[in-house]
Design brief:
- The complex is a heterodimer of chains A (about 220) and B (about 130).
- Helix content of chain A is about 35%, strand content about 20%.
- Chain A is an alpha/beta fold.
- Chain A has one domain: P-loop containing nucleotide triphosphate hydrolases (Rossmann fold, 3-Layer(aba) Sandwich), CATH 3.40.50.
- Chain A has a seven-stranded parallel sheet, sandwiched between helices.
- In chain A, helix 7 links the parallel strand 7 and strand 8.
- Chain A is globular.
- Chain B is α+β, with helices and mostly antiparallel strands.
- Chain B has a domain of about 80 residues: hypothetical protein PF0899 fold (2-Layer Sandwich), CATH 3.30.2320.
- Chain B contains three helices and six strands.
- In chain B, a hairpin with a 4-residue loop joins strand 3 and strand 4.
- Chain B is elongated, with a radius of gyration of 20 Å.
- Classes of the chains: A alpha/beta (about 220), B alpha+beta (about 130).
- Chains A and B meet through strand 1, helix 6 and helix 7 of A and helix 1 and strand 6 of B.
Chain lengths: ~220, ~130
């Protein structure tokens, strides 16, 4: 027997990365700004997104959402009450969305064209580990953290927090009963992702939503 | 638990690359995995066994070469390795360093193949090595 070493130097998720690059091109051509929302289960992604869609709708901005979940279309039904087009992606046990799933659901989304949208939100499966490896072609990755989860979440999940472009703290209306240490949370986020934009919000009271919507408008400005 | 998807992707990629060398047996697969790649080594090893079972890759060793995080410090103007993944600051001056130069890698670096000597090939079977010659 002889031994041969073959250098490959190829990305393990090369297929996903290639599909994501294709999606990114499509989004750019269509002029739609795509955001990928990632958090643990129970952070309040759906409530935050529902409020965002409602506020954008009220301002005449066209937005839509793709929602990933292991099972059920509960989140899609909640989001659809905002009036925005919403499509559910059930992953049936897979812990993250990937570019193939996204592309397939975009292809078959009746009545929705990317060209007709200003924003497309992707609500990822609730998970702070796996989604970090899967590029979906998004321009902005948003990590969400609720005041009920503990201020050290960024330190526990550095892979995801470090890959994010913006961070949203949710449920700030519960900060006092949860003895949430705001300074510590901000410090931890900044240790993992120095200089990241941070928004402190409550989908219930609407606190912080104006700043978040202003950020969305700023992103849509031609650079 | 996306290690199973990752293991399956490695199996696909290695099978494709090894098919260029007929008769070769994959002995080892070497990966480069950054400290921020969100991959748990034990879990990936476990899933590797599952994913290769019953395939030509069964029994192949998976060697994971872990890469530390390297950041670029704007103040010092140099790339520096940081210890751990709990604080993204320049180890020289202590300033926050957001510019990541290494740490997200999730790559197959190389594969080690065992190839039969020409004489070990079955008599009468096509010998791709000789045909190429």
């Amino acid at each position: 027997m002889t031994t041969r070493i073959v250098e490959l130097r190829r990305g393990i998720l090369k297929k996903n990365d290639e599909l994501a690059a294709g999606l990114r091109d499509r989004f750019t051509t269509a002029g739609v700004l795509v955001l990928n929302l990632v958090s643990s289960p129970g952070t309040g992604k759906t409530s935050f997104l529902e409020r965002t869609l409602r506020e954008l709708g009220a301002r005449g901005v066209r937005a839509a959402a793709l929602v990933g979940d292991l099972e059920t279309d509960n989140d899609a039904r909640r989001l659809a009450s905002s009036g925005a087009p919403v499509r559910q992606i059930n992953t049936h046990g897979i812990c993250h969305l990937d570019a193939e799933m996204l592309g397939r659901h975009l292809e078959t989304w009746e009545g929705v064209s990317l060209e007709g949208l200003n924003y497309l939100f992707i609500e990822n499966v609730g998970n702070l580990v796996c989604p970090s490896s899967y590029d979906l072609g998004e321009r902005i990755r948003v990590v969400l953290l609720s005041v009920t989860e503990g201020e050290d979440k960024p330190l526990k999940y550095p892979g995801l927090f470090n890959s994010a472009d913006a961070a949203v703290i949710t449920k700030i209306d519960l900060a006092v009963p949860c003895s949430f240490d705001r300074e510590l949370a901000l410090k931890n986020i900044n240790e993992i992702r120095p200089g990241i934009r941070i928004f402190e919000t409550s989908a219930k009271t609407g606190a912080g939503m104006d700043e978040w919507l202003a950020y969305l408008a700023e992103l849509a400005q031609p650079s | 638990m996306h290690e199973l998807s990752i293991a399956a992707s490695i199996v696909d990629a290695v099978t494709e690359s090894a098919s260029v060398y007929p008769g070769a047996h994959v002995k080892e697969v070497r990966l480069r995995v950054g400290a921020l790649a969100s991959v748990v080594e034990d879990s990936l090893q476990f899933c590797w066994e599952l994913a290769t079972e019953g395939t030509p890759l069964a029994g192949a060793a998976l060697v994971i070469n872990k890469l530390p995080v390297i950041v670029h410090c704007d103040s010092c103007g140099v790339d520096a390795e940081i210890e751990g993944v709990q604080s993204f600051r320049c180890p020289r001056c202590g300033e926050p360093a957001a510019d990541l130069r290494q740490g997200r890698e999730l790559e197959i670096e190389s594969i080690e193949l065992e190839e039969p000597e020409p004489k070990e090939l079955e008599i009468g079977a096509p010998n791709p090595v000789e045909e190429q010659l």
